[in-house]
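Box 4.2: Ligand-aware structure prediction
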Amino acid sequence: MSEITHRSKTRPVKVGNLTIGGSNELVIQSMTTTKTHDVEATVAEIKRLEEAGCQIVRVACPKEEDALAIAEIKKRIDIPLVVDIHFDYKLALLAIEGGADKIRINPGNIGRREKVEEVVKACKAKGIPIRIGVNAGSLEKHILKKYGYPTADGMVESALHHIKILEDLDFHDIIVSMKASDVSLAIEAYTKAAQAFDYPLHLGITESGTLFAGTVKSAAGLGAIMSLGIGNTLRVSLSADPVEEVKVARELLKSFGLASNAATLISCPTCGRIEIDLISIANEVEDYISTIKAPLKVAVLGCAVNGPGEAREADIGIAGARGEGLLFMKGKTVRKVPEETMVEELKKEIDKLAEEYFKK
Ligand code: SF4
């Protein structure tokens, strides 16, 4: 495995009440699918995302009416709001005025220097950062001409081009994304970006696909990047309800032990020794722990033969045992419970452990 551990070396950048980069945990982001000027629908979607664990939300801002809705949306939500703007500096200024906590705009695409200066001045005045979004599918013409097609080096060159415009204006509250739909290209681009600059990196595999295929593709790409110690914030992009993006992102963070505020389910794959209806129990328990904000490990196992021992690292768990269940903690059986009530018993124990965790 590579030696890169870019994450902790990055510059801390404030986004609303959160800090991205430095020694902070990876932050989960998603993007709304509503028309931003439809404030009711946008706020309702943001609330659903927040409930699922989304920590920063981005909205599209293609028109003036969208930029003008930012102030009202801000009043009604609790998580930082990022406004996504392409080219039009006037929309950026309106969004900043409306209270955006971060804007996503590529300074090299804004146009005349005075326009870039105005946007930077407004960001400085409000203390908000800019995310530079490099995308393999929309690299600058001169870079494409130089490299012939989208490459990781070309993407890094594009990022450095936009970064330099901001640095020349003494602006350093920068976050950079290096998105590509091709997993290998994204991994190489993020790895090279981590070596080229110390601004926080926003991870994403763009246009990754539908819920199932996109989850696998995102996990493959983002997992490889995260395993190198790269990435300060992430968005999983799926052609699905954005709540699913947040759920996938949370699972990914948990897989790397990078989420201190979420419980994890361990469930066995089942085999001929199974004694309970494990699949439906596992789904019920997974649903239950999705709202638990403590880093508990909860196991659900099909039988007691190998059960508790197979899940020694679990804080709490149940294993099926012919018409009953065994409740166990850290690999040791605590007590037997009737099959009909074992899920309820498990839930009560989970609640107790979560309560103890927060008392500590
Ligand atoms: Fe099979 Fe039991 Fe292991 Fe599940 S816990 S895979 S049922 S042996």
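In the box above, the bound molecule is iron/sulfur cluster. The chain has two domains: 7-255, 264-359.
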